[in-house]
From TrEMBL, chain A:
This is Amino acid ABC transporter ATP-binding protein. Residues 8-242 form the ABC transporter domain. PROSITE patterns: ABC_TRANSPORTER_1, ABC_TRANSPORTER_2. CDD domains: ABC_HisP_GlnQ. It holds the Pfam family ABC_tran. Keywords: ATP-binding, Nucleotide-binding, Transport. InterPro entries: AAA+_ATPase (IPR003593), ABC_ATPase_HisP-typ (IPR030679), ABC_transporter-like_ATP-bd (IPR003439), ABC_transporter-like_CS (IPR017871), MetN_ABC_transporter-like (IPR050086), P-loop_NTPase (IPR027417).
UniProtKB/TrEMBL annotation, chain B:
It is found in: Cell membrane. SUPFAM superfamilies: MetI-like. Keywords: Membrane, Transmembrane, Transmembrane helix, Transport. Belongs to the binding-protein-dependent transport system permease family. It is a multi-pass membrane protein. This is Amino acid ABC transporter permease. It comes from Gemmobacter denitrificans. Residues 152-343 form the ABC transmembrane type-1 domain. The chain crosses the membrane at residues 20-45, 92-110, 122-144, 156-176, 197-218, 224-243, 289-310, 322-343.
Length: 248, 360
């Protein structure tokens, strides 16, 4: 791990499902502290791309480097990268048989070998940060969707990762719960967390993104700072997508 | 349960009337079923208690005079039923051994004992004490070979050993069957399907009688342990499929979340995936244990006098030949105690595991 290297450096990434090519020559560099929003129509490969970064999906060719560490087939490099890259999922994926607090302390205790008392102290700190401290003893099934997603963010933060990946974190939420999750994400962004967010929340992109990336059919079609991206989109496909997302 | 307790009496009465006496046919059905139950219950009570003979000194004609059950056979022969052909003077040892096994089972059922170290310690200690008591040859206890073990301790030992060896084997088989490497997954599938397509009897026969001709001498070991190994492999093949069913009920996101947090394969399985799989597989697992308990009686065919066979020997000698119903009722009661306990424990586990998933 070299914290001076780019946080994420992707070169010419290709990914196939059978004969279907999900990613076509993706190249992307994310600096430490940068907030990148990835958008695009469904099936455009945006989730697949960020899932390649922590190897929930194996890529077929191309290089992925996280803080200079090359992801190769060795288990060592995958473990090293997963320790530094947290992920928040569309469907929360909290462990239903553990309390909120146990969800948050599991990985630090097993992976970082943090003593229980210290792990719980850190967990309570982050649960307070996502404003859900009073639910620490409950089970995920007893919480609302928005609360569960905030716990999932706290769980990822407890590993004290350098980078957070968000895979459509608000897509499975009822409308009235989206704001509470976005608030937490905005707060994280303002603290300088390196973030890659796959999301359709264009308001969030405008507010916090350093760069917006538009993907379609497995390619990066356009990338620009939010002002330029929303103000003067260059590509026809981008314009079409934006008119569909913002048009009503 | 609690809701029913708080329901006012007149509401309960109203519900009873509506559900059981609502229409003429349903009222007739209720009366008819009630009459049958009453008659059956009365008959069993008369036979088993009121007209029964309990004295250990009574004989066949004394029992016949009273007309009911002749429990004298149990009073006289209970040690044969419980301990088989174990030397008479030493039978305090299997009695104590049974209590040790029961204690170990009860201890491992308590949630506060569920850590690897505590369970392992309990089981190693328990098995050691059981084995020492039963076999002897140490601490001045006379040596009693496995061939002379019998009755309840043998049944319990075979059952517990089958579970203790079979369950970890089942977990390994289930995990191998869903391996990402197709060769391993397929070969494991074949192994499981092959074992499941063989009758347990043939496996026990093979283990007891055929294997010694094929194995090198140092691997043969005592017949009892070969038979237990066979039963455990059979148990594992079925239990592996039960666990696989549980694994299939878990959303893929669970393992992905554990991966994303950096957990190793064993931590993902032992902390995230298997606990949830076992929760889903619990009813079928309890069922499998109940079946395994019943199937211990099959080892009689390779010459072991387990509980049921010991019951057979208890009434087949001379004067008690007429009293087989009483002996079987007694043996059935022992099986019932264990299996009913197992089922209730399963229900307790289910309630406990569901507690966390309920919305409040």
């Amino acid at each position: 791990m070299d914290l001076n290297a780019p946080a994420i450096d992707i070169r010419d990434l290709n990914k196939f499902y059978g004969s279907f090519q999900a990613l076509r020559g993706i190249s992307l560099t994310v600096r430490k502290g940068e907030r990148v929003v990835v958008c695009g129509p469904s099936g455009s490969g945006k989730s697949t791309m960020i899932r390649c970064i922590n190897q929930l999906e194996e890529h077929d060719s191309g290089d992925i480097r996280v803080f200079g560490t090359l992801l190769d087939d060795s288990l060592g490099s995958i473990d090293e990268i997963r320790r530094e890259v947290g992920m928040v999922f569309q469907h929360f994926n909290l462990f239903p048989h553990m309390t909120v607090l146990e969800n948050c302390t599991l990985a630090p205790m097993l992976v970082r070998k943090t003593p229980r008392a210290e792990a719980e102290r850190v967990a309570l700190k982050y649960l307070e940060k996502v404003r859900i401290l009073d639910q620490a003893a409950k089970y995920p099934g007893q919480l609302s969707g928005g609360q569960q997603q905030r716990v999932a963010i706290a769980r990822a933060l407890c590993m004290q990762p350098e980078i957070l990946l968000f895979d459509e974190p608000t897509s499975a939420l009822d409308p009235e719960m989206i704001a509470e999750v976005l608030d937490v994400m905005v707060a994280l962004a303002n603290e300088g967390m390196t973030m890659i967010c796959v999301t359709h929340e264009m308001g969030f992109a405008r507010k916090v993104a350093d760069r917006v990336i538009f993907m379609d059919k497995g390619e990066i079609v356009e990338e620009a700072p939010p002002a330029a991206f929303f103000g003067k989109p260059q590509n026809e496909r981008t314009k079409l997508f934006l008119s569909q997302v913002l048009g009503h | 349960m609690t809701a029913a307790l708080h329901t006012p009496r007149n509401v309960v009465w109203k519900r009873l009337r509506r559900d059981y006496f609502g229409t003429l046919p349903s009222a007739l059905m209720t009366f008819a079923s009630f009459a049958v139950l009453l008659a059956l219950g009365g008959w069993v009570l008369n036979w088993a208690v009121l007209d029964a003979t309990f004295s250990a000194t009574a004989n066949q004609s004394d029992c016949a005079a009273k007309g009911g059950a002749c429990w004298s056979v149990i009073a006289v022969r209970w040690r044969v039923i419980l301990f088989g052909i174990y030397p008479y003077a030493e039978q305090w040892r299997p009695a104590l051994a049974c209590m040790v096994v029961a204690a170990v089972i009860i201890l491992s059922c308590l949630p506060r004992m569920w850590s690897f170290r505590r369970l392992a310690l309990t089981w190693v200690l328990g098995t050691g004490v059981f084995y020492g008591l039963m076999r002897g040859g140490i601490l001045g206890l006379t040596l009693v070979n496995e061939q002379q073990w019998g009755g309840l301790p043998l049944t319990l030992f075979v059952f517990v050993a089958t579970g203790v060896i079979g369950m970890p084997l089942a977990i390994v088989l289930a995990l191998l069957r869903r391996s990402e490497l197709p060769v391993i997954a397929r070969v494991t599938g074949w192994i499981i399907d092959t074992i499941r397509s063989l009758p347990l009897l043939s496996i026990l026969f093979t283990a007891a009688i055929v294997l010694p001709f094929r194995l090198p001498g140092f691997l043969i070991g005592e017949k009892l342990y070969r038979v237990i190994f066979g039963a455990a492999v059979f148990f594992a093949a079925y239990q592996a499929e039960i666990i696989r069913g549980g694994l299939q009920g878990i959303q893929r996101g669970q393992e992905e979340a554990a991966k994303a947090l950096g957990l190793t394969y064993w931590n993902r399985m032992s902390r995230v995936v298997l606990p949830q799989a076992f929760r889903l597989a619990l009813p079928a697992t309890i069922n499998q244990f109940v079946v395994a308990f019943m199937e211990t009686s099959l080892i009689v065919v390779v010459g072991f006098i387990e509980l049921l066979a010991a019951g057979n020997t208890a009434y087949k000698t001379g004067e008690w030949k007429f009293a087989y119903v009483e002996v079987y009722a007694f043996v059935a009661a022992i099986y019932f105690i264990f299996v009913f306990g197992l089922s209730r424990y399963g229900a307790f586990l289910e309630a406990r595991m569901n507690a966390g998933h309920r919305k409040d």
